Fold this protein.
Amino acid sequence: MGTTKILLREDIDNLGGRGEIVKVKAGYARNFLLPQGIATLASKGNVKQIELERSALLKKSATEKSTAEAQAEQMKDINLTFERKAGEGGTLFGSVTTMDIADALKAKGYEIDRRKINLKDTIKETGDFTANVKLHREVTLEIPVTVTAEGGASNVDARKSAKSENTETETADSEEKVVENSVENTADEVET
């Protein structure tokens, strides 16, 4: 397996930043990075050209970072809530994915690519979760995500109240049995 030195034109997670020379497998460079325009071969001419472009790239990167920080400041108070059909234990019939989160952010006026949203796993149950949104390689924003069962908290409250009513009924029934047993025992003692 051969490797190739390439010059990155964009930041790539787990590989490197813009303007860096890295070694990658030849197939990855040939089939993905080069056709996408994400990288160029690290020839002497290309390296000299990137060196000339480096100051412009640094300015562009600084501008992108400040824009990302400003956007993070605007988005810091966002809370996303999803209402989904769920089973008894809070398990969802389906899931909440990065695409759902991107659509919810778009509805709030923020155009975020779903590939920049990171979830540990797709959300498959009700509860509170956190989605990390990578606005820039140095700027990441944590957005709280709440998933509720369809019908909101009223379904959960209804189930809890039904459980507590059943428990109260069982407690009342058991108390009646204890009273009946103690009355029977007292009656037996009086007869003897």
Remarks:
- The CA atoms of residues 11 and 17 lie 4 Å apart.
- Confidence is low (pLDDT under 50) at residues 153-167.
- Strands lie at 3-8, 21-25, 39-41, 80-84, 91-96, 117-118, 123-125, 127-136, 139-149.
